[in-house]
Specification:
252 residues, alpha+beta, Arc Repressor Mutant, subunit A, 4-stranded antiparallel beta sheet, two-stranded antiparallel sheet, 8 helices, 48% helix, 16% strand, flat
C-alpha cells in the first residue's frame, strides 16, 4: 500500500488494506484496496490490460472534496496507476538481467586484474553460490577457511583436497565479479547485496527449475507432488513434431 499509494501505513492507520488476485473461473483480475479507494486491473475485452483507480474519499489522501481539487485528485490516481505498473514491470524483469548474467559467465577485467568466469551450472561455481548464502547475514563476514569447508562438502570432497590456494582463486574471481567484498584491514569477506541476488538466482533456478524439470522428463520423478503437466506437455510437443515429420514425408 505504501509503495503504490505513496502513503505511510502503520498498525494504527484506520481503514482496510488488502490485495486480491482473482483467477478461478473468471478472467484474472487484481484488486488493491486502500481505505475507501481501490485499484482494479483486468483485461479489457480480452485485448488490453486496463488499470483504473477509484477514489471514493479524497480525504484519504489529505485532499478536500471541492471541485477545484479535481486536478490534484486526478494526479494522485494517475501516479498510483503508474507505481503499480512500475512495480509489476520490475517484478517481471529479472534482477540480475541478461547483461549481468552474461557478464558473470565471461571473464572480466577490473582495474587491470583479470578474473575467470563463474559459469552457470558448473559444480564448483554452484557450490560457491550455495555456500555464500550461508554467510550473507553474518556481521563479521567469513574467512577463506570457513567458506572452503562448506564448498568442499557441497562438491562431495574432503576439505583437504580443496586447497586454500584454490579457495583464494575463487575468492578473487568472486570479488572481481562484485559478488563479495573484502573487509578493510582484514582477511574476511562479506557477500554484497547484488551478490546475494545472484547467488539466489543461480541456486534456485538450478535446483528448482532445471534439475527438477529434467528429473521429471528423464528420471520419471514426480517432484511437484502429482503435477505431471511438464511431462504431458513435452509428450504433446514430441507427438506434434512426429506428426509433422510424417506429413512432410507423405507430401514429398
Amino acid at each position: 500500500m505504501s509503495l503504490i499509494f505513496d502513503r505511510r501505513v502503520t498498525k494504527r492507520t484506520p481503514g482496510k488494506f488488502r490485495t486480491r488476485v482473482v483467477t478461478e473461473g473468471v478472467m484474472p483480475s487484481l484488486h488493491v484496496s486502500y481505505k475507501w479507494s481501490k485499484i482494479k486491473q483486468y483485461f479489457k475485452e480480452d485485448k488490453a490490460l486496463r488499470t483504473e483507480t477509484t477514489i471514493n474519499n479524497p480525504r484519504d489522501f489529505g485532499i478536500g472534496k471541492k471541485l477545484e481539487n479535481l486536478p490534484v485528485l486526478r494526479e494522485v490516481g494517475f501516479q498510483a496507476n503508474r507505481r503499480l505498473l512500475d512495480v509489476q514491470k520490475v517484478s517481471q524483469n529479472c534482477q540480475v538481467g541478461i547483461d549481468r548474467f552474461n557478464a558473470i559467465n565471461k571473464r572480466c577485467e577490473v582495474d587491470g586484474q583479470m578474473a575467470a568466469a563463474l559459469k552457470f551450472s558448473d559444480p564448483r561455481v554452484m557450490a560457491l553460490m550455495q555456500s555464500l548464502l550461508l554467510f550473507f547475514l553474518l556481521p563479521h563476514g567469513f574467512t577463506n577457511a570457513q567458506l572452503r569447508e562448506h564448498v568442499a562438502k557441497l562438491m562431495g570432497k574432503d576439505p583437504e583436497s580443496y586447497k586454500p590456494g584454490q579457495m583464494t582463486y575463487d575468492l578473487r574471481r568472486l570479488r572481481l565479479h562484485g559478488i563479495i567484498s573484502r573487509i578493510p584491514n582484514s582477511h574476511r569477506y562479506n557477500v554484497s547485496p547484488e551478490g546475494m541476488k545472484i547467488c539466489m538466482f543461480y541456486t534456485k533456478v538450478h535446483s528448482r527449475v532445471i534439475r527438477g524439470g529434467l528429473s521429471q522428463l528423464f528420471d520419471g520423478l514426480d517432484v511437484q507432488g502429482g503435477d505431471r503437466k511438464l511431462v504431458s506437455a513435452m509428450n504433446q510437443v514430441e507427438a506434434a513434431i512426429d506428426r509433422h515429420i510424417e506429413e512432410a514425408k507423405l507430401a514429398a
